[in-house]
Design brief:
Layout lengths: L5 E3 L4 H10 L3 E4 L11 E5 L32 H16 L20 H17 L14 H11 L5 E2 L6 E4 L2 E3 L7 H23 L5 H14 L11 H9 L1
Parallel strand pairs: 1-3, 2-4
Antiparallel strand pairs: 2-3, 5-6
Helix pairs in contact: 5-6
Pfam families: Alpha-mann_mid, Glyco_hydro_38N
GO molecular function: alpha-mannosidase activity
Keywords: Glycosidase, Hydrolase
């Protein structure tokens, strides 16, 4: 498929619970019976959607306490924070088949004050890793999905497989995310019809001797906005849907 792996956080509540117990949070997804092995994709489910462990959000909009590493402070908290993070790492690792885990740090609209984040992350890395001399088996560092996949490949493990999809998704016993499949059908049709026009226009422009790309930009930009997951899904309020359609 051209991808080395896929990671996502939204999965059905019961599916998540079962996979977490059986250490099957990562797998080979055989999504198509027709395309064969070329379509197989390593897939990982990220805990907490993509947010940090509880009490470790260091963003300016979060209320979690920073790491206070001056021993003269009355609220010095390094030992407590370090142990809490090590516990969180062990809790997360319990659902995965190797000794590598991806610990996401951040969320929507965060890192506007990146210095505050990285200042605390630097401290967290330093003090957590320092506990290895005391017998801790936790080693944390800045990484990327590519590096994470590389480490998993080196394990040379045979992964479990999945052949169906991940729908429907429920976040609680009475909260199933299915309404957006059919909500606001007029907006969905408008978006699809407009995209047909955009793609035909792009092809005609490519075959012509005159470059009119700038004339296509307004529709292309409007389509980019309308295809946002809070737009074409129909989960927005009516006046917001009207604004998308107007564009």
């Amino acid at each position: 498929m051209g991808f080395d792996g896929l990671f996502f956080g939204r999965v059905d509540l019961q599916d998540y619970a079962e996979r977490n117990i059986t250490k099957q949070m990562e797998m080979i997804w055989k999504g198509s019976s027709n395309l064969g092995e070329e379509s197989w994709l390593f897939t990982g489910i990220i805990p907490r959607t993509y947010t940090p462990p509880e009490s470790f959000c260091f963003d300016a909009f979060c209320d979690d306490e920073p790491i206070k590493d001056d021993p003269q402070l009355h609220d010095y908290n390094v030992l407590e924070r370090v142990q809490a993070f090590i516990n969180a790492a062990h809790d997360q690792a319990a659902g995965y088949a190797t000794n590598h885990i991806m610990m996401t740090m951040g969320s929507d609209f965060q890192y506007e004050n990146a210095n505050q984040w990285y200042k605390n992350l630097d401290k967290l890395i330093r003090y957590v890793n320092a506990q290895q001399v005391n017998g801790s088996g936790v080693n944390i560092f800045y990484s990327t999905p590519t590096c994470y996949l590389y480490a998993l490949n080196k394990v040379n493990r045979t992964w479990t497989t999945k052949t169906d999809d991940f729908f429907p998704v429920s976040l609680n016993p009475h909260g199933i995310l299915t309404g957006y499949f059919t909500s606001r059908p007029a907006l969905k049709r408008y978006e699809r019809y407009s995209n047909n026009i955009l793609q035909v226009t792009r092809q005609l422009n490519a075959f012509s001797n005159i470059t009119l790309r700038t004339a296509i930009f307004p529709l292309s930009e409007a389509m980019g906005i309308a295809q946002h997951h809070d737009a074409v899904s129909g989960t927005e309020k009516q006046h917001v849907a009207n604004d998308y359609a107007q564009r």
